[in-house]
Amino acid sequence: MASADGESAPDGPGERRIVSDAVGVVVLAACATWSLVTAAVNGGRPEGVLLAVLAVTAGYAAGRILGVLLPVAAPCAAALAGLSLTVALPRLVPGPETVTPLGHAGATAAVLTLSAGAACCAAWATPVPAPRLALRLLAGGMAVAGAALGSAIAMVTCGAVLLCSLAAGRMPHRGRGLAGLALTAAAVTGLTWATAGGALPGGLASSLEDQLTPRRIGLWRDALHLARHDVGLGVGPGRFGELSPTAAQATLSDGKPHSAPLQMAAEQGVVGVLLLAAAFCWMLFALWRAVRPTPVVLSAGAALTGLAAVAAVGNALSFTTVSVGAGLLAGLATARPLAVEPAPGVVTPRSGRAAQRSPDGRPAA
Length: 365
Fold this sequence. Notes:
This protein is mainly alpha-helical. Helices cover 68% and strands 1% of the residues.
């Protein structure tokens, strides 16, 4: 049998989903267990991590169910819900410390990015040209909304998701695209880490510090210092605000370093960082094994990569809404719809029966 990216695979769609789901269960269970272990050893509050794991799980399960029944309507509704949420509550990011010249590096940018990905997935799932164009315009509208809300990061990430989705229609092999997305997320994380460690050249470091603000850089450096203090277990989940001098000096502080990788390193050690990376890689792995058309898969992957970039420089993952949205988008893109989906760029005839096609757009045997 041929896999979804055109390469031979020994297992069928059902077995592929079972394998990816089993990997997800192991990874998410390990994330929850490790937070409990570090909290028991060093003290702390693991409730935030446990709630995030529960939110991702619930969102993923809901996405799988809705994606089977409503492969076009469900992601479209998710995109509209995300846009409505950010317009109705534009200050999703609490506190003035997260407001930088880069925009709201938090929940607002994350929700808009995921919404743009959902709109792009819905666009590729419909064979009718008019709704497809409308959904792509909706995805572009997410970038406009980000600009209107003062979030430059949302404008950039939403635009990148739309461009990646359009390019995905000409990419026959999803594996290469997903590998590129993984490298992009790793590069952004590495840049954040290098900035915190002072490893960047002087000119680039000064430029980034001006845009990110010295306060955010100070939080990152505190997180890196705490991570070096206890590499194995960290200082305990939820304890960064107690031990960070920069956070203690703030009048209004949420006790976060505003970088998910650095927060995991400080509070849960190197194992916590590896588990966070494993959770992201599991989502990409599930997308790679999915039976959906490659453009749908890569559109969702681009949005999740955008979320990873936002989380590397902000506190996006501190919000349950974002965790649910990430799981929901991954579930929608990995579900197996009841109806056979059209090939990318192929319009279903108005009369007569459409040709049966495989998930990667080729005629079925």
